[in-house]
Amino acid sequence: MVAEANVESHGMGYGDGTLAKRNDYALAHLQRNQRNVQRGFNHPSIIVWSLGNEAGYGPNFEAAYDWIKAEDTSRMVQYEQARINGKTDIYCPMYAGYDNIVRYATNPENTKPLIQCEYAHAMGNSEGGFKEYWELYRKYDKLQGGFIWDFVDQSIRRTGKNGAMIYAYGGDFNRYDGSDTNFCDNGLVSPDRVPNPHMYEVGYYYQNIWTDTDKLDRGKLVVFNEYFFRDLSAYRLKWEVLHNGVVVRSGCVENLNVDPRTTAEVPVETGKTDSPGEWLLNVKYELKNREGVLPAGHIVAKQQFSLKPYDFAKIEFENTSVGSSSHSTHSTPSTPVIRDNDEAFIIVEGENFRVDIDRRTGMISRYCVNGMELLKEKAAITPNFWRAPTDNDFGANLQLKYAAWKNPAITVKRESGSVRSEVVNGTAAVSVALNIADFADMTLKYEINNQGAVKVTESMKANPEKKVSNMFRFGMQIVMPESFDKVVFYGRGPVENYSDRKSATDLGLYSQSVDEQFYPYIRPQENGTKSDLRWWSVLNSAGNGIKFTSEAAFSASALHYTMESLDEGISKQNGHSQEIEKADLTNVLVDKLQMGLGCVTSWGALPLDEYMLPFKDYEFVFLMTPVKNYIDVK
Description:
By secondary structure, the chain is mainly beta.
């Protein structure tokens, strides 16, 4: 714990105007630090004194430092504005990025430990890139972590529209108070102490037991005890082997003899994993007995390992006799029929399905299988590049910078042959050439077999002569009826996860309601995405619906909310998730890629480059397979 004196005067400036340099404030600086130390001197949890926060630097703080060092020789003293060479025992910057802390760690002239006094701003849907921070903290001894801003969202309960309970923030009380909107809501937990989804990522990297599988072929797990002062005798190790997401073997090591800061080999017998399919190993460490508020069985650390990766095979598309109607007289699989004589639509029909492609838009506007409409009336399957901006997106002004991708004009090219249809190897193929505004070309290709399965190829070719911003995502939006209220998937879960925030979530089989996908961040924004999907199904209560697969890991979400209802536009509008009314639909977003969330700051910093989607060519291939009477999650 760092005990900080109540000195914060940044409103007066950091340069020559700082109160730290004024003689008439010398006593105030000194007395506040004296009282801080004298009040907390006998609290053993305090290991560092802080001279203050955001208040410039000058002789008043230097005098306070000298007094504390004379009064208490046992503790370190820090102050952020003292930087590297001022009177501080710790270099404690605010919101230093990855490159900055690496430069500090690799400079031999820097001898003080670096502990960020604020970093990883946890505002809204955030903490993307937390993994990369902690990889550096563990790599360099000089880097010793930091203090996440903040622990808790600092809103208060209030009755909002239609009697809904909301968490109120700046601007909710009247029109006149100075307001920084929801900037008080940057916590790991909600005001009621419910963990926000990003807290799980923080907890994962804070764990103190780590496992390595380098010697698994010799029947051993390598366990590193990162604790400084306790061995692992209070914990048991549990492991399970999964085949295609299903647990097939498990075991337990009751006694762990691993001293602090040491590594030990632990014998396990996980069995063979050479048969086809994906093989995973889950390892977790749990308390044997209750410790304080932690119950017996509480998991203190976990990891997942890939023993044999998932095979994302190329989608081989053909007709099949499986699922044909019982009265079919075909001895071989039937062939879908293309009705190309309608002025407005290309209609593809089979024994039990119908797919309408709108000639005017190039989009699928009807998808009916076994008499069930899989698209909401007047809806369509459309390309999508947008997300409801997160707080970090707003902080970087991306709601304006990326505006070209919000509702770009997507039009069918006027030249002859822009819309083509034919039967190829017994399957229907429809191809539509499109323009995206004036900066890109797109081709949508639909291949449809005799069971109503649709292979979608979404290809975009960027115009290299145009300067266009990055995009939020590259994928498709499928608006289904509200009755499709269940998701069953093989991917990362159970909580939401994103390209740069997914380490805490495990690959596995999950069955959840669409209601469970929505997380009510205090201000409405993008939420509910699941990543690294092998397959994703959206079903109704009878087990009917659509299963999505692709040729590579993809991401998806399903919400009873429109994207527009979660998007506050070009500026924040004091929205609250609890006031957003559900829509009578299930909005399914299926993405090849989605931009990361970022965490460095909420006022301009972007995610790392590897989690961005620059303006370039993309192609996304996915398969929509009708599902009938799905029962077993396995």
